[in-house]
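Entry 0007
Protein: Ras family-domain-containing protein
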Amino acid sequence: MPTRTNSIMQSNESVSIKLLIIGIASVGKSSLLFRFTDQQWLPEGETNPTIGVDTYEHKLDVKGKRVILNIWDTAGDERLRAITSSYYRGTQGIILVYDVTNRESFNAISWWFTERSKNALELAVKMIVGNKSDKSHMRQVPTAEGAAYAARMGCLFVESSAKTAVGVREMFRDVVERILDIPEFWGPSKQAFKAPNDLAHMLK
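Output (structure tokens):
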């Protein structure tokens, strides 16, 4: 008899996946999301800082499955990091973004791994993304260093540019493909991965 996992992954029904995007302020998290969901780029001066969390829904086809992505874009401001911990519950994929022209933003990734042990689902697929790769003349973090760190932490890795769209679609597809390959997310004991409809109480 087919298992529930097999029936879900072999059926035509859509699957819902929750992704969390983390990184300090100004690494380009919102710009990456806007490029991915709307196929447009907003210059840094035209984007507003995220307060608490913004949520996006985006549909795409991966491995023959219709996937509904619930993407949570978190604030990077230091004083709002405590709020972020409320959003780990039920997350299947976590994308950690740094700015290749900002060494501090890369070093801050290690802080998240400490938080993960307290908040994140162990099975969650992790990807480290070095954004703003188009600014090669300002680079402070070499590609090889970012890739080596990701490998050491057991994460996927890609460099991207919200401005040129390089690596943007790949970062989301690679994470989703890996999530679809994890049976525990789709079995009878899977967690509920739906986001709350009203986030206002978390921001008070």
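Curator remark: The chain has one domain: 4-187. The CA atoms of residues 88 and 120 lie 5 Å apart.
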